[in-house]
Amino acid sequence: MGFKDLANFNDALLAKQAWRLLHNKDSLFYRVFKMKFFPNCSIWEAQDSSSGSHAWHSIIKGRDVLLKGARWRVGCGEDISNPQQQNEVWKLIWGLNVPNKVRNFMWRACKESIPTMHNLLKRKILNEDRCEQCGVESETTAHALWNCSTSDEIWESTPGFKDRSQLGASSIMDLINLTHEKRKNVDLLAMVMWTIWHRRNQLRALATYQQSQQSLINHAAVLRPQHHAQWRPPPANCVKLNFDGAVFPELGKAGLGVVVHNCQGNAIATLSEQAPLPFSPIIVEAMAAARAITFAQELGITEFMLEGDLEAVINSLRSAEASLTTYGHLLESAKSTLVTSNCIAFSHIRRSGNRVAHNLAKHAKHVRGLSVWVENIPPNLYDVLFADPG
Length: 390
Ligand SMILES: [Zn+2]
Fold this sequence. Notes:
Layout: H1 3-23, H2 28-37, H3 54-67, E1 71-72, E2 80-81, H4 83-94, H5 100-110, H6 117-122, H7 141-147, H8 152-156, H9 172-181, H10 186-223, E3 239-248, E4 253-261, E5 267-276, H11 281-298, E6 303-308, H12 311-318, H13 328-336, E7 342-348, H14 355-363, E8 370-374, H15 382-386
Parallel strand pairs: 3-6, 6-7
Antiparallel strand pairs: 1-2, 3-4, 4-5, 5-8
Helix pairs in contact: 1-3, 5-10, 11-13
The chain binds zinc ion.
Zinc ion binds next to loops.
Protein name: Reverse transcriptase zinc-binding domain-containing protein
Organism: Lithocarpus litseifolius
GO molecular function: nucleic acid binding; RNA-DNA hybrid ribonuclease activity
């Protein structure tokens, strides 16, 4: 790169800074500069001043680079746009090697016309725009598809986008440009964004469904006595571990599921683990009980209740005598590690009350080895936690 190129390169960088300043009016960056340098006009009219900082001089210089390509758009909601940039992004999107619905979606995202909370707020459909996924930030399009912390896991497992904080962009259009300039995979970016948006909508639909189900359940509870075993949270200062087993004979595997609830009834940890298939299903149940005990110890839990839906296993756990069953040794060795724990109770519940552990055990079919979640249950497990047993 020669000096001339370097100067052009710098100009491009400066223009980008100015572009961000123009676009993200909620940012602290924008507000600080506005207050200091152009309190009474837009950045387009702002004057360079000798008292300004180096950053301000740079931004003004970037703005002038940008002005060559930008013009006012009269009568449109967004006050400024750069037709040349729009044109390029449009071409880029329509040239992507992705399904048509994804191209369409990306173009709508660029035009700020997907129904994010922030866009609905702008259209006065909502009164606030907080993101329902993370509950922290305002759900702009860039937040919903890129910045939201609830998509960390997805981006971290996407090749080329592991460290997405390096691609700081305030709009999807910016981001597509940046991705393209850095020669990263724009197809992949589009597919992942579409998936994130799809997941967000599914989770919202699920939440609505659950609310309506809950009100149905509440309503039904008033009308008739309960026939189903109902799961209950543990007493104060105690947690409850529900466990269950599942068998996958076609894979030669078994599944172990454990869910830990606190006394408020919130799930604080889950485990889904594959194990070799033993010769009898009842042994899987004992393996799940033993795994629940070691899981509690791994989590540093000293006071807990253990609950399962197979009476024979619970009875063996309760019994002071050594069990002579085929799975007795499993329970004995798990129980022998319990000396340091307090407040332990074993309880039996009918299948319908052990739904979550059951789903986690079945989920182990798709898990390689072990899957453990502590505190924040990942959204991709919601359907496991809330699905009907089957
Ligand atoms: Zn969020």
